[in-house]
Design brief:
Chain lengths: 215, 215
Protein backbone atom coordinates (compact mmCIF):
# COMPACT_ATOMS: atom_id res chain seq x y z
CA UNK A 1 0.00 0.00 0.00
CA UNK A 2 1.22 3.49 -0.88
CA UNK A 3 2.50 5.39 2.12
CA UNK A 4 0.02 8.26 1.63
CA UNK A 5 -2.85 5.79 1.34
CA UNK A 6 -1.77 4.13 4.58
CA UNK A 7 -1.52 7.54 6.28
CA UNK A 8 -4.95 8.73 5.11
CA UNK A 9 -6.76 5.44 5.63
CA UNK A 10 -5.25 4.66 9.03
CA UNK A 11 -7.91 4.74 11.75
CA UNK A 12 -8.01 4.28 15.50
CA UNK A 13 -9.93 0.99 15.52
CA UNK A 14 -12.10 -0.17 18.42
CA UNK A 15 -14.30 -2.83 16.78
CA UNK A 16 -12.60 -6.05 15.78
CA UNK A 17 -13.42 -9.36 14.19
CA UNK A 18 -12.16 -12.32 16.23
CA UNK A 19 -10.03 -13.77 13.38
CA UNK A 20 -6.41 -14.27 14.46
CA UNK A 21 -3.60 -12.23 12.94
CA UNK A 22 -1.16 -14.66 11.29
CA UNK A 23 2.32 -14.77 12.79
CA UNK A 24 3.92 -13.77 9.48
CA UNK A 25 1.78 -10.63 9.37
CA UNK A 26 2.44 -9.80 13.01
CA UNK A 27 6.19 -10.20 12.51
CA UNK A 28 6.13 -7.84 9.52
CA UNK A 29 4.26 -5.25 11.57
CA UNK A 30 6.66 -5.52 14.52
CA UNK A 31 9.70 -5.42 12.24
CA UNK A 32 8.33 -2.20 10.73
CA UNK A 33 7.95 -0.74 14.22
CA UNK A 34 11.49 -1.81 15.06
CA UNK A 35 12.79 0.08 12.01
CA UNK A 36 11.73 3.47 13.33
CA UNK A 37 14.56 5.86 13.94
CA UNK A 38 15.67 6.17 17.52
CA UNK A 39 17.91 8.61 19.31
CA UNK A 40 21.48 7.31 19.18
CA UNK A 41 20.10 4.03 17.73
CA UNK A 42 18.90 3.40 21.29
CA UNK A 43 15.95 1.20 20.18
CA UNK A 44 14.44 1.60 23.65
CA UNK A 45 11.25 -0.31 22.78
CA UNK A 46 9.92 -3.74 23.64
CA UNK A 47 6.70 -5.29 22.39
CA UNK A 48 4.65 -7.44 24.74
CA UNK A 49 2.07 -9.48 22.85
CA UNK A 50 -0.82 -9.86 25.25
CA UNK A 51 -3.23 -12.71 24.53
CA UNK A 52 -4.00 -14.23 27.93
CA UNK A 53 -7.65 -13.55 28.83
CA UNK A 54 -6.98 -13.04 32.55
CA UNK A 55 -4.30 -10.41 31.88
CA UNK A 56 -6.57 -8.60 29.44
CA UNK A 57 -9.52 -8.77 31.87
CA UNK A 58 -7.38 -7.08 34.53
CA UNK A 59 -6.29 -4.37 32.08
CA UNK A 60 -9.90 -3.91 30.99
CA UNK A 61 -10.92 -3.37 34.62
CA UNK A 62 -8.25 -0.67 34.89
CA UNK A 63 -9.70 0.97 31.80
CA UNK A 64 -13.21 0.86 33.28
CA UNK A 65 -12.07 2.51 36.49
CA UNK A 66 -10.10 5.24 34.70
CA UNK A 67 -12.91 5.79 32.23
CA UNK A 68 -15.44 6.39 35.01
CA UNK A 69 -13.21 9.20 36.27
CA UNK A 70 -12.64 10.55 32.75
CA UNK A 71 -16.40 10.56 32.05
CA UNK A 72 -17.05 12.71 35.11
CA UNK A 73 -15.53 15.67 33.24
CA UNK A 74 -18.59 15.83 30.99
CA UNK A 75 -22.22 16.73 31.65
CA UNK A 76 -25.58 16.77 29.89
CA UNK A 77 -25.68 15.88 26.20
CA UNK A 78 -21.90 15.75 26.04
CA UNK A 79 -21.91 13.12 28.81
CA UNK A 80 -24.59 11.08 27.03
CA UNK A 81 -22.51 11.18 23.86
CA UNK A 82 -19.33 10.32 25.78
CA UNK A 83 -20.96 7.30 27.38
CA UNK A 84 -22.15 6.08 23.97
CA UNK A 85 -18.62 5.98 22.53
CA UNK A 86 -16.67 2.76 22.32
CA UNK A 87 -13.17 3.77 23.36
CA UNK A 88 -11.30 0.46 23.38
CA UNK A 89 -11.32 -3.09 22.08
CA UNK A 90 -9.14 -4.74 24.73
CA UNK A 91 -11.21 -7.94 24.97
CA UNK A 92 -12.66 -8.04 21.44
CA UNK A 93 -9.36 -7.82 19.57
CA UNK A 94 -7.52 -11.11 19.06
CA UNK A 95 -4.44 -9.60 20.64
CA UNK A 96 -3.08 -6.54 22.38
CA UNK A 97 0.43 -5.14 22.13
CA UNK A 98 2.04 -3.18 24.95
CA UNK A 99 4.84 -0.97 23.65
CA UNK A 100 7.30 -0.04 26.36
CA UNK A 101 10.33 2.21 26.66
CA UNK A 102 13.42 1.09 28.57
CA UNK A 103 14.79 4.38 29.81
CA UNK A 104 18.16 2.94 30.69
CA UNK A 105 18.91 1.13 27.45
CA UNK A 106 22.19 2.02 25.81
CA UNK A 107 23.90 3.00 29.05
CA UNK A 108 24.10 6.17 31.09
CA UNK A 109 24.54 8.53 28.12
CA UNK A 110 23.01 7.93 24.72
CA UNK A 111 24.22 9.92 21.71
CA UNK A 112 21.72 12.71 21.04
CA UNK A 113 19.86 12.18 24.33
CA UNK A 114 21.22 14.91 26.48
CA UNK A 115 19.26 18.14 26.76
CA UNK A 116 16.00 16.27 26.02
CA UNK A 117 15.80 13.15 28.13
CA UNK A 118 12.39 12.20 26.70
CA UNK A 119 13.83 11.59 23.24
CA UNK A 120 13.58 7.87 24.07
CA UNK A 121 9.82 8.24 24.55
CA UNK A 122 9.63 10.22 21.29
CA UNK A 123 11.46 7.42 19.45
CA UNK A 124 9.06 4.86 20.90
CA UNK A 125 6.08 6.86 19.61
CA UNK A 126 7.67 6.89 16.13
CA UNK A 127 7.84 3.09 16.35
CA UNK A 128 4.15 3.00 17.27
CA UNK A 129 3.28 5.06 14.20
CA UNK A 130 5.31 2.71 11.97
CA UNK A 131 3.44 -0.21 13.52
CA UNK A 132 0.09 1.50 12.91
CA UNK A 133 0.83 2.25 9.24
CA UNK A 134 2.28 -1.19 8.48
CA UNK A 135 -0.78 -2.75 10.10
CA UNK A 136 -3.03 -0.60 7.91
CA UNK A 137 -1.20 -1.82 4.83
CA UNK A 138 -1.87 -5.38 6.02
CA UNK A 139 -5.56 -4.65 6.55
CA UNK A 140 -5.04 -4.91 10.31
CA UNK A 141 -6.59 -2.36 12.65
CA UNK A 142 -4.90 -0.79 15.66
CA UNK A 143 -6.50 1.14 18.51
CA UNK A 144 -4.42 3.02 21.09
CA UNK A 145 -6.01 2.82 24.54
CA UNK A 146 -4.98 5.93 26.42
CA UNK A 147 -7.50 5.74 29.27
CA UNK A 148 -5.49 3.44 31.51
CA UNK A 149 -3.06 3.98 34.34
CA UNK A 150 0.37 3.13 32.89
CA UNK A 151 1.78 2.29 36.32
CA UNK A 152 -1.05 -0.17 37.11
CA UNK A 153 -0.96 -1.78 33.69
CA UNK A 154 2.84 -1.83 33.82
CA UNK A 155 2.52 -3.72 37.11
CA UNK A 156 0.13 -6.26 35.55
CA UNK A 157 2.68 -6.80 32.77
CA UNK A 158 5.58 -7.14 35.20
CA UNK A 159 7.58 -4.19 33.88
CA UNK A 160 10.82 -3.75 35.81
CA UNK A 161 12.02 -0.49 37.32
CA UNK A 162 13.11 1.92 34.58
CA UNK A 163 10.80 0.52 31.92
CA UNK A 164 7.59 2.44 31.22
CA UNK A 165 4.48 1.66 29.24
CA UNK A 166 4.12 4.10 26.36
CA UNK A 167 1.29 2.63 24.28
CA UNK A 168 -1.30 -0.05 24.89
CA UNK A 169 -2.65 -1.20 21.54
CA UNK A 170 -5.58 -3.38 20.51
CA UNK A 171 -4.74 -5.20 17.29
CA UNK A 172 -6.80 -7.27 14.86
CA UNK A 173 -8.90 -7.25 11.72
CA UNK A 174 -11.49 -4.49 12.06
CA UNK A 175 -15.19 -4.81 11.32
CA UNK A 176 -14.46 -1.91 8.96
CA UNK A 177 -12.04 0.94 8.33
CA UNK A 178 -14.22 4.01 8.57
CA UNK A 179 -13.87 6.96 6.19
CA UNK A 180 -12.77 9.43 8.85
CA UNK A 181 -12.11 9.76 12.57
CA UNK A 182 -14.97 8.47 14.72
CA UNK A 183 -14.94 11.66 16.84
CA UNK A 184 -15.56 13.73 13.72
CA UNK A 185 -18.37 11.47 12.52
CA UNK A 186 -20.26 11.63 15.83
CA UNK A 187 -19.85 15.41 16.04
CA UNK A 188 -17.52 15.44 19.05
CA UNK A 189 -14.72 17.31 17.31
CA UNK A 190 -13.50 18.25 13.83
CA UNK A 191 -10.30 18.37 11.86
CA UNK A 192 -8.57 21.77 11.88
CA UNK A 193 -7.48 23.33 8.55
CA UNK A 194 -3.76 22.70 8.03
CA UNK A 195 -3.33 26.29 6.89
CA UNK A 196 -4.16 27.52 10.41
CA UNK A 197 -1.44 25.33 11.90
CA UNK A 198 1.48 26.43 9.75
CA UNK A 199 3.66 29.41 10.65
CA UNK A 200 6.75 30.92 9.07
CA UNK A 201 9.95 31.64 11.00
CA UNK A 202 8.16 32.34 14.26
CA UNK A 203 5.00 31.47 16.15
CA UNK A 204 1.96 33.41 14.95
CA UNK A 205 3.41 34.51 11.61
CA UNK A 206 0.98 32.96 9.07
CA UNK A 207 2.41 30.51 6.57
CA UNK A 208 0.39 32.10 3.75
CA UNK A 209 3.25 31.91 1.27
CA UNK A 210 3.07 28.15 1.34
CA UNK A 211 -0.64 28.20 0.52
CA UNK A 212 -0.72 31.03 -1.99
CA UNK A 213 -1.59 28.70 -4.90
CA UNK A 214 -4.27 26.93 -2.86
CA UNK A 215 -7.82 28.28 -3.18
CA UNK B 1 6.12 4.54 -2.53
CA UNK B 2 5.04 1.43 -0.65
CA UNK B 3 4.69 1.99 3.07
CA UNK B 4 7.22 -0.72 3.94
CA UNK B 5 9.70 0.72 1.46
CA UNK B 6 9.31 4.16 3.05
CA UNK B 7 9.77 2.67 6.52
CA UNK B 8 12.90 0.70 5.60
CA UNK B 9 14.49 3.38 3.44
CA UNK B 10 13.79 6.29 5.81
CA UNK B 11 16.99 7.74 7.21
CA UNK B 12 17.97 10.46 9.63
CA UNK B 13 19.54 12.82 7.10
CA UNK B 14 22.21 15.38 7.94
CA UNK B 15 23.72 16.16 4.52
CA UNK B 16 21.55 18.14 2.15
CA UNK B 17 21.67 19.59 -1.33
CA UNK B 18 20.66 23.25 -1.42
CA UNK B 19 17.78 22.74 -3.92
CA UNK B 20 14.52 24.12 -2.59
CA UNK B 21 11.62 21.84 -1.72
CA UNK B 22 8.65 22.86 -3.91
CA UNK B 23 5.62 24.22 -2.04
CA UNK B 24 3.37 21.48 -3.43
CA UNK B 25 5.70 18.82 -2.02
CA UNK B 26 6.01 20.56 1.32
CA UNK B 27 2.22 20.88 1.60
CA UNK B 28 1.76 17.16 0.92
CA UNK B 29 4.31 16.32 3.61
CA UNK B 30 2.68 18.61 6.17
CA UNK B 31 -0.81 17.35 5.30
CA UNK B 32 0.44 13.81 5.92
CA UNK B 33 1.77 14.89 9.32
CA UNK B 34 -1.55 16.55 10.10
CA UNK B 35 -3.37 13.27 9.37
CA UNK B 36 -1.74 11.44 12.25
CA UNK B 37 -4.12 10.26 14.88
CA UNK B 38 -4.29 12.40 17.98
CA UNK B 39 -5.80 11.87 21.39
CA UNK B 40 -9.41 13.09 21.31
CA UNK B 41 -8.71 14.55 17.84
CA UNK B 42 -6.75 17.21 19.75
CA UNK B 43 -4.36 17.92 16.83
CA UNK B 44 -2.02 19.69 19.25
CA UNK B 45 0.67 20.31 16.65
CA UNK B 46 1.86 23.37 14.76
CA UNK B 47 4.53 23.47 12.09
CA UNK B 48 6.89 26.44 11.95
CA UNK B 49 8.74 26.56 8.64
CA UNK B 50 12.09 28.13 9.46
CA UNK B 51 13.99 29.63 6.52
CA UNK B 52 15.41 32.90 7.87
CA UNK B 53 19.22 32.63 8.09
CA UNK B 54 19.49 34.67 11.29
CA UNK B 55 16.98 32.48 13.12
CA UNK B 56 18.75 29.35 11.94
CA UNK B 57 22.16 30.76 12.91
CA UNK B 58 20.88 31.36 16.44
CA UNK B 59 19.50 27.82 16.64
CA UNK B 60 22.76 26.45 15.27
CA UNK B 61 24.65 28.27 18.04
CA UNK B 62 22.37 26.62 20.59
CA UNK B 63 23.18 23.24 19.03
CA UNK B 64 26.92 23.99 19.21
CA UNK B 65 26.72 24.86 22.87
CA UNK B 66 24.65 21.81 23.79
CA UNK B 67 26.83 19.57 21.66
CA UNK B 68 29.98 20.67 23.49
CA UNK B 69 28.39 19.51 26.72
CA UNK B 70 27.11 16.26 25.14
CA UNK B 71 30.59 15.49 23.74
CA UNK B 72 32.13 15.74 27.20
CA UNK B 73 30.48 12.40 28.08
CA UNK B 74 32.92 10.58 25.81
CA UNK B 75 36.67 10.01 26.00
CA UNK B 76 39.50 8.55 23.95
CA UNK B 77 38.64 6.87 20.63
CA UNK B 78 34.94 7.19 21.33
CA UNK B 79 35.37 10.97 21.69
CA UNK B 80 37.35 11.17 18.45
CA UNK B 81 34.59 9.25 16.68
CA UNK B 82 31.89 11.41 18.31
CA UNK B 83 33.60 14.60 17.17
CA UNK B 84 33.82 13.26 13.60
CA UNK B 85 30.06 12.71 13.31
CA UNK B 86 27.83 15.22 11.58
CA UNK B 87 24.78 15.42 13.83
CA UNK B 88 22.68 18.13 12.18
CA UNK B 89 22.07 20.02 8.95
CA UNK B 90 20.46 23.17 10.35
CA UNK B 91 22.24 25.57 7.99
CA UNK B 92 22.78 23.26 5.00
CA UNK B 93 19.16 22.19 4.57
CA UNK B 94 16.96 24.53 2.53
CA UNK B 95 14.49 24.67 5.40
CA UNK B 96 13.88 23.56 8.95
CA UNK B 97 10.54 22.64 10.49
CA UNK B 98 9.83 23.09 14.18
CA UNK B 99 7.01 20.82 15.31
CA UNK B 100 5.36 22.05 18.48
CA UNK B 101 2.70 20.79 20.87
CA UNK B 102 0.06 23.14 22.29
CA UNK B 103 -0.66 21.52 25.62
CA UNK B 104 -3.84 23.49 26.16
CA UNK B 105 -5.49 22.87 22.80
CA UNK B 106 -8.98 21.43 22.96
CA UNK B 107 -9.79 22.91 26.35
CA UNK B 108 -9.20 21.81 29.92
CA UNK B 109 -10.12 18.14 29.35
CA UNK B 110 -9.52 16.29 26.12
CA UNK B 111 -11.22 12.96 25.49
CA UNK B 112 -8.73 10.17 26.18
CA UNK B 113 -6.19 12.50 27.80
CA UNK B 114 -6.74 11.92 31.45
CA UNK B 115 -4.49 9.46 33.24
CA UNK B 116 -1.70 10.12 30.73
CA UNK B 117 -1.26 13.85 30.23
CA UNK B 118 1.60 13.35 27.77
CA UNK B 119 -0.67 11.73 25.19
CA UNK B 120 -0.55 15.09 23.36
CA UNK B 121 3.23 14.77 23.05
CA UNK B 122 2.81 11.18 21.87
CA UNK B 123 0.36 12.30 19.18
CA UNK B 124 2.79 14.98 18.03
CA UNK B 125 5.54 12.36 17.66
CA UNK B 126 3.18 10.24 15.52
CA UNK B 127 2.72 13.31 13.30
CA UNK B 128 6.50 13.65 13.02
CA UNK B 129 6.80 10.03 11.89
CA UNK B 130 4.09 10.58 9.23
CA UNK B 131 6.02 13.64 8.05
CA UNK B 132 9.25 11.65 7.92
CA UNK B 133 7.73 8.80 5.88
CA UNK B 134 5.84 11.07 3.48
CA UNK B 135 9.05 13.03 2.94
CA UNK B 136 10.90 9.78 2.17
CA UNK B 137 8.29 8.91 -0.44
CA UNK B 138 8.89 12.34 -1.99
CA UNK B 139 12.66 11.79 -2.02
CA UNK B 140 13.03 14.44 0.69
CA UNK B 141 15.31 13.84 3.66
CA UNK B 142 14.53 14.72 7.26
CA UNK B 143 16.93 14.94 10.20
CA UNK B 144 15.69 15.31 13.77
CA UNK B 145 18.05 17.52 15.79
CA UNK B 146 17.77 16.46 19.41
CA UNK B 147 20.88 18.18 20.76
CA UNK B 148 19.28 21.56 21.42
CA UNK B 149 17.65 23.15 24.41
CA UNK B 150 13.90 23.17 23.63
CA UNK B 151 13.29 26.14 25.93
CA UNK B 152 16.00 28.27 24.27
CA UNK B 153 14.95 27.33 20.75
CA UNK B 154 11.30 27.80 21.73
CA UNK B 155 12.23 31.30 22.84
CA UNK B 156 13.94 32.03 19.51
CA UNK B 157 10.76 30.90 17.73
CA UNK B 158 8.50 32.97 20.00
CA UNK B 159 6.52 30.05 21.40
CA UNK B 160 3.89 31.23 23.86
CA UNK B 161 3.37 29.80 27.34
CA UNK B 162 1.89 26.31 27.13
CA UNK B 163 3.36 25.48 23.73
CA UNK B 164 6.46 23.27 23.69
CA UNK B 165 8.94 22.34 21.00
CA UNK B 166 8.81 18.59 20.37
CA UNK B 167 10.91 18.15 17.22
CA UNK B 168 13.31 20.37 15.33
CA UNK B 169 13.73 18.98 11.83
CA UNK B 170 16.13 19.73 8.99
CA UNK B 171 14.37 19.15 5.68
CA UNK B 172 15.60 19.00 2.08
CA UNK B 173 16.88 16.78 -0.70
CA UNK B 174 19.73 14.67 0.69
CA UNK B 175 23.09 14.12 -0.93
CA UNK B 176 22.08 10.45 -0.64
CA UNK B 177 19.84 8.09 1.31
CA UNK B 178 22.29 5.70 2.91
CA UNK B 179 21.62 1.96 3.14
CA UNK B 180 21.43 1.87 6.91
CA UNK B 181 21.71 4.03 10.01
CA UNK B 182 24.87 6.15 10.07
CA UNK B 183 25.64 5.07 13.66
CA UNK B 184 25.67 1.44 12.56
CA UNK B 185 27.90 2.18 9.57
CA UNK B 186 30.54 3.97 11.64
CA UNK B 187 30.49 1.25 14.29
CA UNK B 188 28.98 3.37 17.07
CA UNK B 189 26.03 1.07 17.67
CA UNK B 190 24.10 -1.78 16.03
CA UNK B 191 20.53 -2.84 15.43
CA UNK B 192 19.16 -5.28 18.02
CA UNK B 193 17.46 -8.49 16.85
CA UNK B 194 13.68 -8.02 16.95
CA UNK B 195 13.30 -11.46 18.52
CA UNK B 196 15.06 -10.22 21.67
CA UNK B 197 12.59 -7.35 22.02
CA UNK B 198 9.34 -9.31 21.85
CA UNK B 199 7.72 -10.81 24.93
CA UNK B 200 4.48 -12.71 25.48
CA UNK B 201 1.92 -11.74 28.12
CA UNK B 202 4.48 -10.33 30.51
CA UNK B 203 7.93 -8.76 30.59
CA UNK B 204 10.75 -11.27 30.23
CA UNK B 205 8.65 -14.14 28.83
CA UNK B 206 10.24 -14.79 25.41
CA UNK B 207 8.05 -14.38 22.36
CA UNK B 208 9.46 -17.56 20.82
CA UNK B 209 6.08 -18.76 19.57
CA UNK B 210 5.95 -15.85 17.17
CA UNK B 211 9.35 -16.72 15.72
CA UNK B 212 9.08 -20.52 15.66
CA UNK B 213 9.02 -20.66 11.85
CA UNK B 214 11.92 -18.25 11.56
CA UNK B 215 15.40 -19.81 11.32
Amino acid sequence: MDVYEAIYRRRDVRRFRPDPVPDTVLRRILEAAHHAGSVGLMQPWNFIIVRRPDVRQAIFRDFEERNRRAASHYEGERRVLYDSLKLQGILDAPLNIAVTCDRGRGGPHVLGRDSVIDTDIHSTCCAVQNLWLAARAEGVGVGWVSIIDPASVGGLLGLPEGVVLVAYLCVGYPTEFEDGPMLERVGWSRRLPLRDLVFEDSWGRPGDDLFREVP
